[in-house]
Design a protein that fits this description.
Helices cover 23% and strands 42% of the residues. It is an alpha+beta fold. The strands form two sheets. The protein has an eleven-stranded antiparallel sheet. It has a two-stranded antiparallel ribbon with strand order 4-11. The longest helix has 54 residues.
């Protein structure tokens, strides 16, 4: 009897171990499947979000020079356009290729006018979040724009800023554009408007930096050699991680 009972106990223990091992194996497969499903869901969600963000941020940008001769002093025109469905503009950065020369802070007197333009933008209650059912009120407005040369602060100079162009859009906004670089490396021009609930897209900006300042100082000088020069720009969304990138070639001639 004792031996039979011992054999029965061994069979019971073996069956228990097999059942436990099978349970653990099924549990591991369950967790692996669960993890795979979660990863697939996350991947799909990220793809959908990225697709939506990209679809809602497709601004337009172009740059023109009115003088493309070597060593010429051109007026430089920037044109930006944002549809009503676009995210609002965040940081703007324009890139001037090497070979060009931009006047430094010391070369142009402070507060001199260096450019102008026109901004068309939506303004009013349409642009700010409100209670459901609120009657939308707003209108497209045309705002004159003026560029002024401003003094570079010590902190800006320490970070490599060689000139500051203030875009005055009063009463809507003021944008401090920081110019960095040199003729041998090229230049960057960057700045961001202050976010506002009083304005929104659609937005167009037709802006020109003059060939010379009020006192006659050339603001930008073309390269001394002819050839194709590639201008670039990056515009970040104020509402998402999206960045719109642009390239445009301009040929400098003899």
């Amino acid at each position: 009897m004792g031996e039979k009972e011992s054999q029965a106990e061994r069979r019971t223990l073996t069956a228990y171990r097999v059942t436990a091992d099978l349970g653990r194996s099924r549990l591991r497969r369950f967790y692996k499947m669960k993890k795979a499903v979660v990863l697939m869901a996350l991947t799909l969600a990220i793809s959908l979000v990225a697709g939506v963000a990209h679809a809602e941020f497709t601004p337009k940008f172009s740059v023109k020079l009115d003088n493309t001769k070597v060593n010429g002093n051109p007026a430089m025109n920037f044109y930006l356009e944002f549809d009503e469905e676009d995210d609002e503009i965040g940081l703007f950065t324009g890139f001037i290729p090497k070979g060009f020369t931009i006047a430094t802070d010391e070369q142009i007197p402070n507060n001199e006018k260096i450019g102008s333009g026109v901004i068309q933008i939506r303004g009013g209650l349409d642009c700010r979040p409100g209670p459901e059912g609120q009657i939308p009120l707003g209108a497209n407005a045309t705002v004159p724009a003026t560029f002024y040369e401003k003094a570079v602060t010590d902190d800006e100079a320490d970070s490599g800023v060689i000139a500051v162009w203030l875009l005055d859009l009063e009463p809507l906004n003021r944008v401090r554009l920081l110019v960095k670089g040199s003729p041998t490396t090229g230049y960057s021009i960057s700045g961001a408007p202050t976010p506002s609930d009083n304005t929104c897209n659609p937005l167009t900006a037709d802006l020109t930096i003059n060939a010379k300042s009020q006192s006659g100082v050339p603001i930008m000088t073309n390269p001394a050699t002819a050839g194709k020069k590639v201008f670039k720009a990056e515009i970040t969304s104020q509402d998402s991680p999206e960045i719109a990138k642009f390239k445009q070639a301009i040929t400098i001639t003899k």
